[in-house]
Amino acid sequence: MLKGYTRANSSKHMSRNLFPFASRFSAGSSSCSISIVMWSVVGCLLMLHLYSLVSQSDKQNKEINASMRSYPLLLQLEAVEEENIKMPRPRGRSQRAAKRKPRHTTTLIDEFLDDSSPIRHIFFPDMKTAIDPNKDAGNNSLYYYPGKIWLDTEGNSIQAHGGGVLFDERSRTYYWYGEYKDGPTYHAHKRAAARVDIMGVGCYSSKDLWTWKNEGIVLAAEGKNKTHDLHKLNVLERPKVIYNDKTGEYVMWMHIDNANYTKASVGIAVSDSPTGPFDYLYSKRPHGFDSRDMTIFKDNDGVAYIIYSSEDNRDLHISPLTEDYLDVTRVMKRVLVGKHREAPALFKHEGIYYMITSGCTGWAPNKALAHAAKSILGPWETLGNPCIGGNEVVRFTTFFSQSTYVLPFPGLPGLFIFMADRWNPANLRDSRYVWLPLTVGGAANQQPLEYNFGSPLWSRVSIYWHKRWRLPDI
Ligand code: GAL
To answer: Is the CB of 187 under 6 A from ligand 1?
Structure first.
């Protein structure tokens, strides 16, 4: 019985386990095919979702672009304006001089840098043509004339070089901060770059980005204490201010240096009012590295970053600031490594970060480049020269200027104001402002490496040359 039971049982077992692998296989294959089907469905759904997201954002972009394009003024801003600057007739030289040194071909850049050039008025028009908000009301009102002297509401030329603009939500007012350079230009020693003693940081306020009221020097130089960073014989350049929503403080970052540019540090100052006075806190070398041209950028999530030229201007470094914006965090990324870029001006459009930089040629102008990145900490890709119009030399020299800031124009996504300095090394206080429309849209001008669903991730960044232009009326 027991045996029979055992046999019967065992045969039952046998029949059940006759092909154990096969049964497991068939169960496995059905669960396998079910899971394949399930994953395919999930995959398809995901693809559909992604596709709808992409086409939705494409649709939104097209709608934004279409609404942008519907502004006739914007179309005017994107019109290509050529510039025909005629070289002056070669100036006479004595036979002896000609023998001693054969003449090299003079270029437009040489003429620009020569303060005795007969075509100097083209680059540095005189006071008679100044933009004057008190006199230009009417037909000329709100028009920018890049390179012309720009007067404040008291009739003095604006002193806000290497500057940036803060829009203060609380007072709904724009504040333009920059180097106050209204002093004599000189060279600290024979081979040193032209300089003006530190006077401080100038601040101007405006509601329309054209009429600027002088709010005074909001961070002043130190006259007596020679060991102070702000002692007049040192260097204070490229000040930028952002507002900290958590602490309620206006925080200023700037390039602090000595006359030989070997201190290469950043300085930080704070104020509870946009018009100062700012209290100078301290200077440091961020992450122990030399830091020269710099800017700061506040992202939509409130995190702020510093971007500075470092390692003898070979690379740019980007670092998030601490929550109070008074220091750098330990995170630091090197970007545009070995590219020797400076004068960074960073902005964001539709979730993508863009940056304009210049080459490193001191006060002399050179070719700008536009860069783009998905993450602010990089990698950054170079898009090419954003300058459009003028002529080849004008484009090659960033309209004879150097980037300092890019300001979003409210109400019209994709339109920005490109702010640059036309330095006058012979008389730095007479350096001019070049403000031009910058748009983001259309295909990038250089074959980009990054693609998203077959289309390039970045749009073209274009800065349009105009002798005279104004912002759309919105
Ligand atoms: C430039 C820099 C300016 C200033 C100048 C001095 O390269 O962008 O901010 O430092 O050099 O020569």
So the answer is: no
Question: Position 258: which residue type?
Answer: N
Running DSSP on this structure, what letter comes out for residue 338?
Answer: T
DSSP letter string, 352-406: EEEEEEE-S-TTS----EEEEESSTTS--EEEE--EESB-HHHHHTTTT-EEEEE
| Residue 423 CA to its chain's centroid (Å) | 18
Evaluate: CB of 360 within 6 angstroms of ligand 1. Answer: yes
Residue 148 confidence (pLDDT)? 98
Give the pLDDT confidence score for residue 75 in this predicted structure.
Answer: 85
Separation of CA 276 and ligand 1 centre (Å):
26
Return the minimum-mean-pLDDT range out of 68-77, 111-120, 155-164, 218-227.
68-77
Strands 459-464 and 387-388: parallel
User: Is the CB of 249 within 6 Å of ligand 1?
Assistant: no
Give 328 Cα–ligand 1 centroid separation in angstroms: 23
Mutate to test the pocket of ligand 1, among 293, 357, 358 (most ligand atoms within 8 A of CB): 293
Q: Which of 120, 124, 103, 121 is nearest to 111 (CA)?
A: 120
Task: Kindly give the distance from the C-alpha atom of residue 359 to the centroid of ligand 1, in angstroms, as a whole number.
Answer: 10
Identity of the residue numbered 70: S
CA atoms within 13 A on the CB side of 312: 1
List pLDDT tens digits, range 202-233. Answer: 999 999 999 999 999 999 999 999 999 999 99
18's tokens: 């006759």
Host H or E run for residue 161: strand 161-168
Nearest CA to ligand 1 atom 7: 362
Look at residues 177, 149, 143 and name the one whose alpha carbon lies nearest to residue 436: 143
Atom in ligand 1 nearest the alpha carbon of residue 292 = 10
Distances in Å between the alpha carbon of 348 and those of 85, 300, 386?
A: 34, 9, 16
User: Is ligand 1 within 6 A of the CB of residue 162?
Assistant: yes
Nearest CA to ligand 1 atom 12: 362
